[in-house]
Design a protein that fits this description.
The chain is an all-alpha fold. About 75% of the residues lie in helices and about 0% in strands.
């Protein structure tokens, strides 16, 4: 736990620097364009389709009719929008995670390695093609689990447990792979995954819980048409920042674990690391 917390505060200090904040704008632009485009073309038809489905539920329509008599005539549209937002959110989280992995993992992890692990030898056990294939497999498994478990998400106990577990597994798989891709060999990466599976999954689950917060903003933006243009980009930026922080967190923890692994096995690659305590100089934070 101490090692997890140590990596946490190091990552948080770096994630709040102007450089990282600016870097998060890259995936944000792509996500905003994608969401706004899909919302422009498909939100209204999707609302109409969901509304037509809700009409087939007499007990629900009875409740909505009762609410409309008390001045809540828009509840039918609000409920349809909530259902759409609830269905879309898991895919939005996956897209945010993958966009950060593709666009930000290299510059963020290079910064961690350069500042804290300058002497750790790079065995380059991962590649761009390997990363894409690994992410594809992990994402496919995640989406399959989401589809199979979706009915349980409507049951109170499961709706608070299943999403963080699913996001935690995908997050730890993607981010741990990225963190070790340049420095670890294939054998070392598999050994770190095996030896540190539970701490890595714990970090992924925590990141998943933190990542659930922007969902409230996302749903609010979907419900309030006037605030859609402001709230949805804000939610998307929070998603990208959280996953950028997660990338740094996994980078610090996984590279430190790799260093310990090499030191314990006494391989030539197990060079000492330079552990620099974060110091604030002016407006820059060095890790």
């Amino acid at each position: 736990m101490i090692k997890i917390l140590d990596a946490f505060w190091r990552a948080l200090a770096y994630a709040l620097t102007p450089r990282v904040l600016v870097l998060t704008l890259m995936p944000l632009v792509l996500l905003v364009v994608l969401v706004m485009t899909l919302g422009y073309f498909y939100l209204d038809p999707a609302q109409e389709w969901v509304s037509d489905v809700l009409i087939d539920w007499p007990w629900l329509m009875t409740g909505l009719t009762w609410l409309s008599r008390w001045g809540f005539a828009a509840w039918h549209t609000v409920l349809a929008t909530l259902i759409i937002s609830f269905v879309v959110t898991p895919f939005l989280v996956v897209l945010s995670l993958l966009s950060v992995s593709w666009l930000l993992s290299t510059p963020l992890l290079d910064g961690v390695a350069r500042r804290r692990f300058p002497h750790l030898q790079r065995l380059r056990g991962g590649s761009l093609a390997g990363s894409v294939w690994f992410m594809f497999k992990s994402t496919l498994i995640t989406l399959l689990v989401l589809l199979l478990s979706f009915p349980l998400w409507w049951i109170a106990p499961f709706m608070f447990v299943l999403p963080p577990l699913v996001w935690g597994w995908l997050t730890y798989r993607v981010m741990a792979y990225d963190a070790l891709a340049q420095h670890a060999s294939v054998e070392e990466r598999e050994q770190v995954f095996e030896q540190y599976r539970w701490p890595l999954w714990t970090m992924g689950i925590i990141t998943g819980f933190i990542g659930a917060a922007p969902g409230l903003i996302w749903v609010s933006g979907a419900m309030l048409a006037a605030a859609f243009v402001l709230l949805v980009p804000l939610a998307l930026w929070i998603y990208t920042w959280i996953f950028a922080f997660g990338t740094l967190w996994f980078g610090h923890y996984a590279l430190a674990a790799l260093h310990e692994l090499r030191r314990d096995t006494k391989t030539p690659a197990g060079d000492d690391i330079t552990d620099v305590t974060p110091k604030t100089v002016g407006r820059e934070t060095t890790l």
